[in-house]
UniProtKB/TrEMBL annotation:
Coiled-coil regions, chain positions: 388-440
Protein name listed in UniProt: histidine kinase
Native organism taxonomy: Bacteria, Pseudomonadati, Pseudomonadota, Betaproteobacteria, Rhodocyclales
Domain named Histidine kinase: residues: 449-664
Assigned EC number: 2.7.13.3
HAMP domain span: 347-400
Recorded catalytic activity of this chain's protein: ATP + protein L-histidine = ADP + protein N-phospho-L-histidine
Length: 679
């Protein structure tokens, strides 16, 4: 036990150093690395936004310059008065606006004059989106990719400036070309109007970006000002034509710029292929840079180049490693110092525990007088040792008291045993009652089986009666009355069997529910039972006030009403008055359904019979009734969520009230106990 306590305390002391510190350092390293990556990506994203804004400003500036020249009175005046002087004017204006070419086009897009002699026959320039937009009256500035022939046409000098040998670059996409001879141009065009605001031409101009080192140096100076990067890092900016660097301050070696080198295939596919922005570390020429690339699209929406900014990553990683190393060293030093102090404190903890453990072992061996005694510790452990000694004293005093309680407990157990025996007897009687209920349910199942078995011979009797009557023909006349009686009695057996089946299996006789008019069904039932009224001189009074439609099976509702009406008629053998009334049923101001009341003026129902009229097989018509009519009616109404109420006074008559809901709550399998429910 002593070794176990020591081991646990040592584990508690050393756990922060052996387990906690490595886990904590791992989390710090992971979170630090993730935070470092997010920080670098945020910075390069911000740098790329700044570079994009500057490049947009340059592009917009070229467009403004061309538009300003197109609106100058001098150009419009010469176009109208001295067209021959236009080339001289354009050659004078282009350098002042730092434009590499300037053309004046007619309304068909054909060149009228140029800042430099054009190399080739004049051809319409409607294919360029900027020119087409200007001819429609809207100035437009785009970035376009000019083919070598297009540059040659404008000026052989532009073609020479655009030509650039391609340098084999690691991880670049395969390319059979050895040089880049196309040009990336900021292309602008603006409409030229005369004094009457009639469109008379288009002024077209542009700036070649190939070899435009001044622009990328300016972008680099704006994005990466002095002091914005740690010592040893440097920022870069680049313009790409497709995947080739045409203007960059990335160094290939020494002061040689990496013109003609190409971007990696992964960056090309993502930026030029899918049109996405690249943010993250990438290998640039000969080193890892935190890089940001975004696509440059021409006037047709096609990606023709890329804008890039980035900075050398290694100084950032070195600074991060130094910071993490210092943090790790600090964690380890603090943990080691804490472990030494914890070991010293642990010693003052396990010594009093060892003494208490020794006393426990002595007590287990029968030394009831063993005690811990005084301990040097004055903390919770010292108090625990004193309380432990007092507990041992208390245990000795309680031992004798427990003996007395044991004797008293034996007496109480004997008393409780007698009570339990009586409870068991009560439970046995309840079980007998449950068995009786199960027997009653079995009788219901037996009734259903017997009813099904009776149907077979009844069908045979009826079939043979029909055959016998057909075979005998006129010879059956002497026994015609007997055959009729047999046929009536077999039909009565069939009706009794049907009622038995309906009682035993009400769900099998259930029909589909539909919305029916109460008044219409009651009227139909009166018509079907009309012959009973005529024979007994019964007066019928109706009051149809119900307007609600109820949801029930129409045939089953007719069965219930006919059964109640026939019972009422049979209760008045000497004649009387039969009242049928309908009304809407509402509760708390809401429509619930309808109520149908059937009242007779017969002798009424005896009070001792009133509570049994819905019981199966209960009847007061000795020899003529099965006792299933009202029981089946009760089951049908209850199945659709309604209820039947009866009010009868001997000598005054009986009233049955059928409460039917407009939304049926249908139960296809009512349980047997439901037949015994009453109001």
């Amino acid at each position: 036990m002593r070794r176990s306590v020591r081991a646990k305390l040592l584990a508690l002391v050393l756990a922060p150093l052996v387990v906690g510190v490595p886990v904590l350092l791992g989390l710090v390293w992971t979170w630090g690395s993730e935070g470092y990556e997010r920080l670098l990506n945020f910075k390069i994203s911000s740098d790329l936004v700044t570079a994009h804004e500057y490049f947009d400003r340059v592009r917009i500036g070229v467009g403004h310059d061309v538009q300003a020249l197109a609106e100058s009175h001098r150009l419009v005046g010469l176009l109208a008065a001295q067209p021959a002087a236009l080339p001289t004017l354009l050659a004078e204006l282009a350098p002042g606006r730092r434009l590499d070419f300037l053309l004046l086009l007619d309304r068909e897009g054909r060149p009228l004059a140029a800042s430099q002699p054009l190399a080739g026959a004049a051809a319409p320039r409607l294919a360029w989106p900027a020119v087409a937009s200007a001819l429609n009256g809207t100035a437009l500035t785009t970035v376009e990719r000019f083919a070598p022939e297009a540059l040659q046409y404008l000026s052989p000098a532009l073609r020479e400036r655009a030509w650039l040998p391609l340098v084999e670059t690691r991880a670049a996409a395969p390319d059979a070309r050895t040089a880049e001879d196309r040009g990336l141009v900021i292309h602008a065009a603006a409409p030229v109007y005369d004094a009457k605001r009639n469109l008379v031409g288009v002024l077209e101009g542009g700036v070649l970006l190939n070899g435009n080192l001044e622009m990328v140096d300016r972008i680099n100076a704006i994005v990466y000002r002095d002091g914005s990067l740690p010592l040893g890092s440097r920022g870069t900016a680049t313009l790409f034509l497709d995947d080739a660097r045409i203007a960059t301050n990335v160094r290939l070696f020494g002061d040689t710029r990496a013109l003609g080198t190409r971007v990696s295939q992964a960056v090309r596919e993502r930026v030029l292929g899918r049109g996405e922005t690249w943010l993250g570390t990438a290998f640039v020429v000969n080193d890892d840079y935190v890089s940001g690339y975004e696509p440059i699209a021409d006037g047709r929406g096609e990606r023709v180049g890329m804008l890039y900014v980035g900075f050398l990553e290694e100084p950032f990683r070195s600074a991060g490693r130094m910071a993490m190393g210092a943090l790790f060293a600090l964690f380890i030093a603090i943990s080691a110092a804490g472990a030494v102090l914890s070991l010293r404190w642990a010693r003052s903890v396990f010594r009093p525990i060892e003494r208490m453990n020794a006393v426990i072992q002595c007590v287990e061996q029968g030394e009831a007088d063993a005690r811990v005694g005084e301990v040097a510790s004055r903390d919770e452990l010292g108090r625990l040792a004193g309380e432990f000694d007092q507990l041992l004293d208390t245990l000795s005093a309680k031992r004798e008291e427990l003996q007395r309680w044991a004797e008293e407990l034996d007496r109480k157990v004997a008393e409780r045993t007698l009570e339990l025996r009586e409870a068991n007897e009560t439970l046995r009687r309840a079980q007998q009652q449950l068995v009786m209920s199960e027997k009653l349910a079995a009788i219901g199942e037996l009734t259903a089986g017997v009813a099904h078995e009776i149907n077979n011979p009844v069908a045979v009797i009826q079939g043979n009666l029909d055959v016998m009557r057909d075979q005998l023909g006129p010879a059956a006349e002497p026994v015609r009355q007997e055959i009729r009686l047999i046929h009536e009695q077999t039909d009565r057996i069939r009706q009794i069997v049907t009622k038995l089946l309906q009682f035993a299996r009400p769900g099998e006789f259930a029909g589909y529910a539909e919305a029916v008019e109460v008044n219409e069904v009651v009227a139909d039932c009166l018509f079907l039972t009309q012959h009973n009224f005529d024979r007994r001189a019964i007066e019928v009074i109706t009051d149809f006030g119900a307007g609600a439609r109820i949801e029930i099976n129409r045939s089953e509702l007719q069965q219930v009403l006919i059964n109640v009406i026939v019972n009422a008629v049979q209760a008045m053998p000497a004649g009387g008055c039969l009242s049928l009334a309908t009304a809407d049923w509402g509760e708390d101001g809401e429509a619930v359904g309808a109520v149908i009341r059937v009242r007779d003026t017969g002798q009424g129902i005896a009070p001792e019979d009133l509570s049994h009229i819905f019981d199966p097989f209960f009847t007061t018509k000795k020899g003529s009734g099965t006792g299933l009519g009202l029981s089946i009616s009760y089951t049908i109404v209850e199945r659709y969520g309604g209820r039947i109420e009866v009010d009868s006074r001997p000598g005054e008559g009986t009233e049955f009230a059928l409460w039917l809901r407009r939304d049926a709550r249908y139960d296809e399998s009512p349980s047997a106990p439901g037949f015994l429910r009453r109001w």
